[in-house]
Design brief:
- It is a single chain.
- The chain is of the alpha+beta class and about 500 residues long.
- It folds into 3 domains: about 10-130, no CATH class; about 135-250, no CATH class; about 265-475, no CATH class.
- Helix content is about 35%, strand content about 15%.
- It has 16 helices and 19 strands.
- It has helices spanning about 20-30, 95-100, 130-145, 155-165, 190-205, 230-245, 255-260, 270-280, 290-305, 310-325, 330-355, 365-370, 390-395, 460, 480-485, 485-490; strands at about 1-5, 5-10, 15-20, 50, 55, 125-130, 175, 180-185, 220, 225, 285-290, 375-380, 380-385, 385-390, 405-415, 425-440, 445-450, 465, 500.
- Strands 11, 12, 15, 16, 17 and 18 form a 6-stranded antiparallel beta sheet that branches. A 3-stranded antiparallel beta sheet has the order 7-8-19, with no helix packed on it. A two-stranded antiparallel ribbon has the order 1-2.
- α3 (about 130-145) packs across α6, α5 packs across α6 and α11 crosses α12.
- The N and C termini lie far apart (about 65 Å).
- The structure holds zinc ion.
- Zinc ion binds near residues 38, 40, 41 and 45.
């Protein structure tokens, strides 16, 4: 828009296009079919052809999740493999233009006409996908599979054989009889009664005016189906209504036990630990998103007290000294630099080691390096090895006192990169527990006490974060998630369902 001789001239500008995926291909000129169908991943699109379904599938989507998202390590629920990849950077318009004009066209079928617009190549986002459209396709497939609607059901012999090929849910493979084939009911299969129950839930739902179509009109109770869903109906179904309707018929796993199992710290004596930590929780646990700086401080403390991390600390120190030769003799400066950069450095370091074929990164280190969850369970009371620790606020309303602690904190001195026996020196602390945090590293938790010194004003002393006891040699070796929730990965056949027969 520009102003000229008191006249306002306005010119339209195309900012981006919004379409479904095939149209996205036509307008952007990129390939949206076949093995390299992802416009962002391009040549590196993770894809493979399903032997039995005869379709190309793309199971690389988990790399867009946050690095410590639990889905990344669930094997059985996906393709039998964990995902440690990081998402690729989208190409800029200028990069795309350079590729299509220089014949490097593996993922580009043509130069988009929009590049005729002078400014087009400078737009950071040029094409967008219509999410509602995609959501409707996904919704139709989920409803079609759950209610086994002919033509919409994604389950079947081919799907089961492809699962078998991937080595996941192998107990659901088809069983061939003389005339018919039996499909063992999977976790998504509902009995006739359950399908009716789901449809009844939809039928009985009342929603505010203008919220969605009247759901009642979409339900066919006779044959347990949903009919004529519009994209906006699908949106409300997916986001709000389906989770409610499906809840009553979902298998009820031993949720309670699962929660308790997560508490197991000492795996050699699981029962004892479950009981101990369970009792402690009765005193109250709240989950809170804590200050990032404090969380980093606690995380750094955990890292520095973990034996497996020690070689990385040495490496990092060498790295700093090499990068800043001028400061190599200034111990305090080096320590501060290490403290402020180690967490990030370790995360990338471990990440890149994981990408090597024969890496030796343990499961412990993998999740430790990824860092704790921002949402931290805070306890008022915590039992460790039979000793109860309370926060001060808990003690203030009681007649007993369990919040004062005296701790020997180990400080480590490392002589050289080959030094396997760093010198430990002990320092005594007296403190009062202010908060008890259970740092959540997804696969295990590590309790840390946040304290303040009760004798000297804590403003002067600052916060000291001390773990209850050095655990450098005592950290449990964690199992992979699939091993931990073995019942998910191992047994998939759903009970109480009619058999599925295919003629
Ligand atoms: Zn992609």
């Amino acid at each position: 828009m520009h102003i000229m001789e008191n006249t306002l001239h306005s010119e339209p500008a195309l900012m981006w296009t919004i379409n479904d995926f095939p149209a996205y291909g036509n307008l952007s000129g990129c390939v949206v079919k076949g093995y390299k169908a992802c416009p962002i991943c391009g040549d590196d699109t993770p894809s493979h052809r399903l032997k039995n379904g005869h379709k190309i599938c793309y199971i690389g989507h988990r790399k867009w999740l946050p690095i410590n998202h639990p889905y990344r390590r669930q094997r059985a629920a996906f393709n039998g493999k964990p995902e440690y990849g990081i998402p690729p950077e989208p190409l800029t318009g200028e990069e795309v233009l350079h590729m299509v004009e220089n014949g490097d066209r593996v993922c580009w079928k043509k130069k988009s006409i929009f590049f005729d617009l002078e400014y087009w190549k400078y737009l950071p986002v040029r094409h967008a996908l219509d999410v509602m459209h995609i959501e409707k396709n996904v919704c139709d497939s989920i409803i079609g599979t759950l209610l086994e609607i002919p033509g919409k059901n994604k389950d079947g012999i081919a799907a089961r054989l492809d699962l078998l090929n991937m080595g996941v849910k192998t107990d659901l493979q088809p069983e061939y009889g003389e005339r018919r084939t039996r499909l063992p009911p999977g976790p998504w299969n509902l009995s006739r009664a359950e399908k009716r129950e789901v449809c009844n839930s939809f039928y009985g739902m009342k929603v505010p005016e203008g919220y969605s179509s009247n759901i009642k009109n979409l339900v066919s109770l006779q044959d347990s189906r949903l009919l004529g869903l519009k994209s906006h109906d699908c949106h409300t179904l997916m986001q709000q209504l389906l989770p409610v309707a499906i809840r009553s018929v979902l298998e009820k796993p031993a949720r309670y036990m699962k929660v308790l199992k997560g508490y197991v710290q000492n795996r050699t004596r699981p029962e004892g630990c479950i009981a101990e930590r369970y009792i402690a929780e009765e005193a109250g646990c709240t989950v809170s998103v804590v200050d990032q700086d404090l969380l980093n401080q606690a995380h750094l403390y955990v890292l520095e007290n973990t034996e497996e991390v020690l070689p990385y600390i040495e490496q990092h120190m060498i790295h700093i000294k090499t990068a800043y030769p001028k400061f190599r003799k200034r111990t305090k400066w080096l320590q501060d630099k290490h403290n402020s950069t180690f967490i990030q450095w370790l995360r990338f370091k471990v990440q890149s080691e994981l990408e090597e074929d024969n890496h030796s990164v343990s499961e412990n280190l993998r999740w430790l390096a990824a860092g704790p969850n921002m949402a931290v369970p805070l306890y008022r009371s915590y039992l460790i090895k039979g000793i109860k620790f309370n926060i001060k606020a808990q003690d203030d309303v009681r007649t007993t006192q369990n919040s004062g602690v005296y701790l020997l904190a180990h400080t480590m001195q490392v002589a050289s990169a080959k030094d396997k026996n760093p010198i430990l020196s002990n320092m005594g602390f007296y403190g009062v527990i202010q908060e008890i945090w259970d740092l959540d590293y997804q696969k295990f938790t590590i309790p840390v006490f946040r304290e303040y010194n009760d004798v000297i004003d804590d403003e002067v002393l600052g916060d000291v974060i001390i773990e209850c006891e050095p655990f450098t040699r005592g950290m449990p070796n964690v199992d992979t998630f699939d091993e931990l929730v073995g019942e998910l990965g191992g047994q998939n056949i759903r009970g109480g369902c009619e058999d599925i027969w295919i003629e």
